From TrEMBL:
Protein name: histidine kinase
Protein's UniProt keywords contain Phosphoprotein: yes
Database matches in SUPFAM superfamilies: ATPase domain of HSP90 chaperone/DNA topoisomerase II/histidine kinase, Homodimeric domain of signal transducing histidine kinase
Gene3D superfamilies for the chain: 1.10.287.130, Histidine kinase-like ATPase, C-terminal domain (3.30.565.10)
Enzyme Commission identifier(s): 2.7.13.3
Keyword presence, Magnesium: no
Length: 348
């Protein structure tokens, strides 16, 4: 039995013994005061108290030993059931034997369930791998043939435009398939995060580098307010993808000449990254839905997209112990707040 449990039982035994002794002494003293013959009843009373105390001590010792044996037996039952070892209590008709049988059945069911989940995860992993492999070659061929067609001379204006559309739609299809694959891997736990203490400014720069060209083409300025000394516990690869998704939305839903401002603040538990834009904004009643899978706001109906980016961002951050929030005013822009675990706050 563990020392903490033993100490708890010892305190219980002492309380019981003191209570019983107090009752006996009180009763004896009361009887002596009533009879008024203290000398005559003194030694029989002392003997009675002694024998009663001895019986209590012996009874408590037996009960303590039995409790210790029961706890040790339960510990052996659980350990043996986990390891698949032979039964401890056998097949006797006792409460312990019944409990052992139930524990073995429960652990067997748990192991069976875990194996089933693992098998299903492996099947999904193989399916995702097959989808990725089977679609990669056809899409690559479509892109290649569209490039060859675009390089052909003598194509009429409409034909040239159609070829460009083929290339554009092929790129969108490739992006959609890759996003769906990432989403499936995240949901099934196939993708493993590797968070570590990493510079936040480096991760932000990595995300901006993927969207800077599109922002420049629309004349959208991107400013950063971040102390280079700030570090957070996160996976820089996947977190930069989160920031890219948020920045991609900011560029997409902002008018030419708009602004994007990124600010970072370090707190005791979290590091907060705010990405504020001057885009079309989000209705207040839709803020709780924007992170749902395949959800698209009413204002974005005329824009390209399928509603996966924000869902992926939330899942990636959640897998690292972080989270994301959104605040917006229609027509005035949106601010997405990314919260990463501060150094020293990594979840074990």
């Amino acid at each position: 039995m563990r020392s903490a449990d033993a100490g708890h039982f010892n305190r219980s035994y002492i309380i019981f013994a003191v209570t019983a002794l107090s009752l006996v002494l009180g009763y004896t003293g009361w009887m002596m005061s009533i009879t008024g013959q203290a000398e005559r009843y003194l030694w029989p009373s002392v003997l009675f108290v002694f024998l009663f105390a001895l019986i209590c001590v012996l009874w408590l010792g037996v009960m303590r030993r039995r409790m210790a044996n029961i706890v040790d037996t339960l510990d052996q039952i659980v350990e043996g059931a986990i390891r698949g070892q032979a039964r401890v209590t056998g097949y006797s008709e006792t409460n312990l034997s019944s409990l052992e049988n139930k524990l073995i059945r429960y652990i067997d069911l748990s192991f069976h369930h875990e194996r089933k989940i693992e098998a299903e995860k492996n099947k999904i992993k193989e399916l995702i791998s097959d989808i990725s492999h089977q679609t990669k070659t056809p899409l690559s061929n479509i892109v290649l043939y569209s490039q060859l067609l675009a390089e052909q001379s003598g194509l009429e204006g409409d034909t040239q435009q159609w070829v460009k559309q083929i290339r554009t739609q092929a790129d969108k299809l490739d992006w959609l398939i890759q996003s769906l694959i990432k989403m499936s891997r995240l949901e099934t736990g196939i993708i493993a995060m590797h968070p570590d203490s990493t510079s936040v400014i480096d991760t932000i720069t990595r995300g901006i580098s993927q969207i800077y060209r599109q922002a420049e083409q629309k004349g959208i300025s991107i400013t950063i307010d971040c102390d280079t000394a700030i570090h957070a516990h996160h996976d820089p690869k996947w977190t930069s993808e989160v920031l890219f998704n948020l920045l991609d939305n900011a560029v997409k839903y902002s008018e030419p000449g708009g602004r994007i401002h990124i600010s970072v603040a370090a707190y005791e538990l979290f590091v907060r990254i705010d990405i504020a834009d001057t885009g079309i904004g989000i209705e207040e009643d839709e803020l709780h839905s924007v992170f749902k899978r395949f959800y698209r706001c009413k204002r974005t109906a005329s824009f390209e997209g399928v509603g996966i980016g924000l869902y992926l961002a939330r899942e990636i951050l959640s897998a690292q112990g972080g989270y994301i929030k959104a605040a917006s005013k229609p027509g005035q822009g949106t601010t997405f707040s990314v919260f990463l675990l501060a150094d020293g706050q990594a979840k074990v």
